[in-house]
Amino acid sequence: METISLAVSLMLFAFIWYITLVYPPAHRILRNKKTYNLFLYFSILSPILSIIAYNNGMLQNRKETSFLSLYFLIFLIMYKYFDNYILKKNGRNLYFKIKYNTVWNDEESDKTTSIEEWFQISLTILPLLLCYFLKYIILDIIIKIYF
């Protein structure tokens, strides 16, 4: 169970980095409500698997990696918030900019505003920082003090 939880977390981690940095137009699949809900259910299931697989006998790095399962859930919540913000402000969905690739041409990427670029960077980094912060609070403070 521990290996399954780790594999799911790493797969979701790779998915997020793929749609924010490697091929940003791939985020369009999240605009479909059915697909978004499917990913949301999957992202809720991932931390549940990590909680079930957690035990005190685990190696420390496996305990820390189990918090990576929250990354996709936080990403989806932030994505929906940012998308709704851009929808209200600009009357269109959130666009991601293709920064580092000259291979793909995308019309949406050319219309990206600076706030959307900040949202794209935030969606890549902030969920990871929040996962680390939660890991620090739970593993390093609460469990060490009370258990």
Question: Any overview of this molecule?
Answer:
Helices cover 73% and strands 0% of the residues. The protein is mainly alpha-helical and 147 residues long. Helix 1 (2-22) packs antiparallel against helix 2 (33-53), helix 1 runs parallel beside helix 4 and helix 1 (2-22) packs antiparallel against helix 6.
Number of helices: 6
- Give the overall average pLDDT: 86
Query: Into which percent range does the helicity of residues fall?
Result: over 70%
- Sheet-strand content, in percent, reads under 5%
What attributes does this structure have?
0% strand; 73% helix; mainly alpha; 147 residues
SSE topology sketch:
Layout: H1 2-22, H2 33-53, H3 60-66, H4 70-90, H5 107-110, H6 114-146
Helix pairs in contact: 1-2, 1-4, 1-6, 2-4, 4-6
Describe the structure concisely for a colleague.
This protein has helices at residues 2-22, 33-53, 60-66, 70-90, 107-110, 114-146. The protein has 147 residues and is mainly alpha-helical.
